[in-house]
Structure formats: C-alpha cells, structure tokens
Amino acid sequence: MSTIPACPVCGLENTYPDGDNYICPDCAHEWPMQAAAEVEDTRIVKDSNGNVLQDGDAVVVIKDLKVKGSSTTIKQGTKVKSIRIVDGDHEVDCKTDVGSFMLKACYLKKV
C-alpha cells in the first residue's frame, strides 16, 4: 500500500513525489511533503458545540442514544469521564455505567 497521499484539491490518487513536494498530474496542484505529514498526524474532533475534544475529557450525552443490537439506551445527560479519541466514524471511545461504547462526537457536549 502506498503512503503517498491523495491530492487535497481534486482527491485523485495519482500523485507522485518530486523533490520536497507532492505533485498531482491531474490538476497540477503541488504541496510540500512536510505539511502533508503534519496534517495526517493531527486529528481534530469537535463536540456538538464546536469545542475541541481531547483524550481524558469529560462529556455529557445530549440526546437519547439507542444501542444497536440491544434494548439498552444511553440517556440524555449521561456524564462520561476519561474519553479516548480514536480513528473512524465513531470518534470517541468511552466507558459508561451501561458498558463500553464508541460514540459520535456530534452527540456529545464537553463539560
């Protein structure tokens, strides 16, 4: 698998390295390799109000959430301590009284 990123302008994966830059032959966009590496390493996850979430933060659930495959519901107002930010579409990994879950940040509010 190639570690060369897709073009940030057109999204195509035909990019190639040239010196200290990546070049996209499809749209002729050039960008530095160093900046591309920094962007991939930093992941910013925001809660429902736009506050940046970090590992160890405490959050509150803002909506009743049904647990898929179970009759359990995570109730609105449930406080969750010591969250972890992970990759994927469910950005937050946490433990509640009901169990361990992966939640989307758009249903959480930083405390």
Description:
It is built from 1 helix and 13 strands; from the N terminus they run E-E-E-H-E-E-E-E-E-E-E-E-E-E. It is mainly β and 111 residues long. The protein folds into 2 domains: 12-42, no CATH class; 45-110, SH3 type barrels. The protein has a 3-stranded antiparallel beta sheet with strand order 1-2-3. It has a 3-stranded antiparallel beta sheet with strand order 9-6-13, with no helix packed on it. Strands 10-11-12 form a 3-stranded antiparallel beta sheet, with no helix packed on it. The protein is elongated. The protein starts with 15 loop residues before the first strand and ends with a strand. The model has no long low-confidence stretch (mean pLDDT 87).
